[in-house]
Amino acid sequence: MTVGLESDKVGSFRIIEKIGEGGMAIIYKAIQPSLKRTVVIKKLKDPNREIIERFKKEAFVSASFSQENVLAIYDFIFASKSYYLVMEYVDGHDLRDIIDFSAPLPPSVAALIIREVAKGIEYTHNKSVIHRDIKPSNILISHHGEIKLIDFGVAKDETPSKLTLTGMIVGTPSYMSPEQANGDPLGAQSDIYSLGVLLYEMLTGVKPFLGDTNTEVLMKIVKGKFPSPKKYNREIPLRLVQIVKKAMRRDTDKRYLNASEFIRDLDHFLPWKVQTDKKEIFSQFLRKFETDTLKSSEETFKPSRMYQESTKKFWYGTAAVILLFLLASFQIHRFFENERFITMEVKTNIQPSSIYLDGNLIGEMTTQSKVFENILSGDHQLQIRGKGNNGVYQANYFFESGKDVTINARIPRRNTVVTVAATSNPSGAAIYLDGELLGNTPLTRLRLRSGQHTIKVLVRGHDTYVDQINLEKNQSYHLHYNLSPINSH
User: For residue 360, is pLDDT > 70?
Assistant: First the structure.
């Protein structure tokens, strides 16, 4: 089997499949035959000394943990010049997906989730370990109704009297405490602050501190001023708003002293019956989340018009852009007489997103519309990748010299399976995947297997388009093909 390893085994563990990949590691699902249990194996890639030390720290700091809300570490392996971490397998979703698709969450569910995470933090703090990187992607919810805190790779393990770190900022900016953002010593209350940010985002669907750059976000965190969650969601009970604000106090003297105080207030807010039935509540919530996600994805893949009717205001604006472009082009052509450029305006439904032309990053979008100048005319492949948990829009275009273009790209949301929508101009094109006819455009709700594929698109009177595409697992795509008439260029 091909899973990116030289062998389908790591030690005594048998690899089943690759299930993810990040900047630091590749994640595999595996079986431990001796105990007949499913596990996760994290393989460190491109190791350097600093990354290896972080990897080892995650193993050794987590090895002694035994608490229901903290992911269990089973083994640490060095084999064939590679490092592996063997961990508990959680069948479910991370909180990042859930927030992106379902926020704002019901107040009782959000409070219940954060209560379980806080219990895990209470346990690790009692062992003198600060997590320092609490964020949605580090929290898993299983189909069995379990909440698991993961990734202690940047955790600090010290004696109780030295539960701090000075001089280095680590963690994810949006969820940092003011002292963490400022590079000051950290304590248990730093994790409490991050829990407050997490609860705020679950209740509103919005992060409390927003900015175009990490530096801007960090500056706002240090100042400590954020909108009340009530601004975004009037249905949040006042008592829960008070809990959020106390957890996120800039002044540590006014913040919850420890996780136990935080849990106590959550216990007073949550009815006893809700606390008792937590696993069933989480299981039902996850089932509803998956059902709603699939429904919303099917609606997302309804073909959209690539060129919509324009208003006079738009055309006046476009005329101004073209005029400026022509003036700039005059100067450019003094140096590049044989080159012909166009201006491309891209409009997307999801921000932020990254814009690639022929595989090269040409810019980031943080607004609904952005103009890219000095694009060479001719054939190009455009790809727009939504950040975080959003999908991919991919299209081929022929940019005719002297004709500026506006592209309306609808980025699908990521799903739990590889889901594809395909449209074309003109419509009615036959779509072949690895030689097999899928149908004629527009096509929606296609469920395809992940991996490398050959796409062929053809319609009478137009050039046939053939391309290689890599469909990533747990991703969704909108593929658009702009077919050129035969002999048009």
Answer: yes
Task: Work out how many domains the chain is built from and give that number.
Answer: 3
Between 315 and 275, residue with greater pLDDT: 275
Q: Is residue 23 part of a domain?
A: yes
Integer Cα distance of 415 and 296 in angstroms: 10
Tell me the pairing of strands 37-44 and 353-357.
unpaired
Q: What letters, b where the CB count within 10 A reaches 16 and e where it falls short, cover 156-176?
A: bbeeeeebebeeeebbbbbbb
Is-contact 281 109, C-beta < 8 A? yes
3-state secondary structure of 480: strand
Percent above pLDDT 90 for the chain: 34
* pLDDT exceeds 70 at position 161: no
**What backbone phi and psi angles, to 5 degrees, belong to 335?**
-105, -25
Question: Are 289 and 309 contained in the same domain?
Answer: no
Q: What is this structure's pTM? A: 0.59
Q: The domain containing residue 52 runs over which residues?
A: 9-88
Check if 133 is active-site.
Answer: yes
**pLDDT over 70 for what percent of the chain?**
82
Q: What is the CATH number of the domain that holds 50?
A: 3.30.200.20
In this predicted structure, what is the pLDDT of residue 332? Answer: 40
Mean pLDDT over residues 105-129, rounded? 95
Distance of alpha carbon 14 from alpha carbon 37, whole angstroms: 11
Contact 350, 344 (CB under 8 A): no
Q: Does one domain contain both 294 and 310?
A: no
Give residue for tokens 């101004």. 320
* Separation of alpha carbons 151 and 172, rounded Å: 13
Catalytic residue among 46, 75, 100, 133: 133
